Amino acid sequence: MAKQNIRVIIAGGGTGGHLFPAMAIAHKLRAINPDIEILFVGALGRMEMEKVPAAGYRIVGLPIEGFNRKNPFKNIRVLWKLLKSLWLAKSVLKQFNPHAVIGVGGYASGPLLWMASYRNIPVYIQEQNSYAGVTNKLLAQKARKIFVAYPGMEKFFPADRIMLTGNPIREGIEKIHTLRPEAIRHFNLSPDKKTILCLGGSLGARSINEAILHHLPWFYSQNHVQLLWQCGKIYFDRLQSQVDKDQNVILRDFISEMDLAYAAADVIISRAGAGTISELCVVGKPVILVPSPNVAEDHQTKNALALVHANAAVLIPDSEANEKLLPEALNLIDNRSLCSQLSENIKKMALPEAAHTIASIVLNDIKALS
To answer: Given strand 58-62, what is the order of strands in its sheet?
Structure first.
């Protein structure tokens, strides 16, 4: 296959929920075929423009942004950027001439997948959530295959194109159970204390941050636990001035070494994005989920309830986080029986080979079509 000089575009991003699965697929494509050419297409100003080059891949940015539901007049500019992005997408496809395009959701996936289907380039969609995104629903009829993480997605997509693969997860996540000593050293944690890992998504979560901050004075007195806290770049400076670094709290704006962070954790606090949940199932640690209320169709709550109904996670509504979150985490970390039960049940829901499955299917299709 290497002699065919295979070229694949991966389009999308905007948040870690879209970007990390995209990068996991890219890594597996390259692992299977080291000579493959991979080009990412993202949205200018979004996190992929920084993270993708850092991972060793080329990326092209489109000037696209989402529609403004609060101020429709601003959508005149949005429509102009969409038209410009479609034109640039056409140019990228002509120059790179890919054998396939994989869309992972996010603003940039729409123009690329639309223009690719117009040029009869095979299109693949990777839908992370239990509730399909608008872009993916619009493009479903043009996709060769649609990779999903949840059963029952026939209500959004053509049934004959759906493949239940699970969500791709970041490399190394499945190997964390040997990394705890390294993780403790890396984050300068105490090996004698239990660790709460707090994640608010790749961009941070204001309500989770406020909930942690609300109980910090009380938390400082809990001498048997420590907190590893990813707060998000936009919140970091303000929180840094309010956190006592000598009181068992490690504050980070963003944690790139997620394998080590998961390895260090005894209990995890997290949003309920689909990609994160897929990772948490593989990690197999006790989890408290705080679904974001600011997502389409409240899909994070639906994601979280799938685990709660299997007795595989604890759910705290965002509106109750300020009062309950940190005390609930302390109660859980001290409840060995419940921790063991949650850990055992969440592991049963893991689909760790999603990235390899998707990469293999795409490459086999390219081979069959060439």
So the answer is: 58-62, 37-43, 7-11, 100-103, 123-127, 145-148, 162-164
